[in-house]
Amino acid sequence: MADLERFPGLLRIIANYYIDFFRLDNNFTVVASKTIFKCDRANLLWNCKASGTALIALAIVDVDQSNKSYYGEQILYLMSINGESCMVTLSKQGPIYCVKWNPNGKEFAVCYGFMPARVSFYNVKGECVFDMGEGPRNDLYYNRFGNILIVCGFGNIASGNMEFWDVGGRKEIIKIQVPNTTFLEWAPDGQLVITATTAPRLRMDNCYRIWHFTGKLIYEFLCKETVELFQVQWRPVSDGIYHPFPLPTLTSDDKAKAGLIFRSKNADESHPANNLPAGSISKISAYVPPHLRKRGIGKGGLDSAITQKAVKSEIEKKIMNLRKKIDDIAKLKKRMLNGETLEANQLQKIEKECGWLKELEALKLSTEN
């Protein structure tokens, strides 16, 4: 269809695409309609199966004519069965990675923008009601009751970041990291979640883990090197068996139990030091020899000061080196978002970002002591 049709004394714009809402009666009456002028394809999402009063239309243009995004261009529309419609205004430019309705059907969440991505909540009028800020994120998962949202950063943009958010309280419950996650699914009870590393996406270190929404690891199954895991899934249950539940405020002890269990290779797994959750591992400060501790400037004090200065100088060198590596990773991520194909060693460098950030934080802490 031509974009423009000319009539005597009149210029009429013809839309390339449109969405119609039909009532399922004898005449299939049109109750609402929306024209879209820029679209190659679209994803349509109803707010909930029971009522179906509103719909999100994610219009996708495969090629971004401005060459700003490798992901093409996306435009978000909100429509209702009473005929009202609007384009959802996003506060940051860039691709739309994910959009999900809350199961209550009253609001939806959008993950969007050039990295670091932004996550915002919108009501059924298309108004922004809450903004989470920015971070390395690209996926969203509501539990069946809509009171918890997992905001994830999977793939090369982050080391498996999982943020558990209290939707009603608008606050973060806990944040953990589960690297190499290729699959995530909430359990029917809305409290447990399963993550997995599966083939053919990844053929090494296949496994699955069951988590509580407080970040505690409930169960872990690690496949043997010769075994590939293709799929895991919760057993479905009927509605009405599980019910909404209150969300507790986590204590420092609760947070210490969150995250993966750290185990050294070829180490004695029965030893407590080799079975610590990530949340219980404190930041490492620099080691100071006993003869340098609490030493004054009296006899031998000058030698002590010189030694401490030399140690600090070495730490500063390490900090500068780590900062350079992290800056290089930021440049690599920017190149990847612009559509460039990275080499294998560059992708491996991106995967090391989390470890380098932790090491940098520990070194900064040691310089303050």
Automatic annotation (TrEMBL):
GO-annotated cellular components: cytosolic small ribosomal subunit
Domain (Translation initiation factor beta propellor-like): give its ranges.
34-225
Query: Which terms under GO biological process does the entry name?
Result: regulation of translation
Under the heading InterPro entries, the entry gives:
TIF2A, TIF_beta_prop-like, WD40/YVTN_repeat-like_dom_sf
The lineage's top-level taxon is Eukaryota
* Gene Ontology MF annotations: mRNA binding; ribosome binding; translation initiation factor activity; tRNA binding
User: What are the protein's UniProt keywords?
Assistant: Initiation factor, Protein biosynthesis, Repeat, Translation regulation, WD repeat
Protein family: Belongs to the WD repeat EIF2A family.
- Stored PANTHER family: EUKARYOTIC TRANSLATION INITIATION FACTOR 2A (PTHR13227:SF0)
So what does this one do?
Answer: Functions in the early steps of protein synthesis of a small number of specific mRNAs. Acts by directing the binding of methionyl-tRNAi to 40S ribosomal subunits. In contrast to the eIF-2 complex, it binds methionyl-tRNAi to 40S subunits in a codon-dependent manner, whereas the eIF-2 complex binds methionyl-tRNAi to 40S subunits in a GTP-dependent manner.
| Name by which UniProt lists this protein | Eukaryotic translation initiation factor 2A
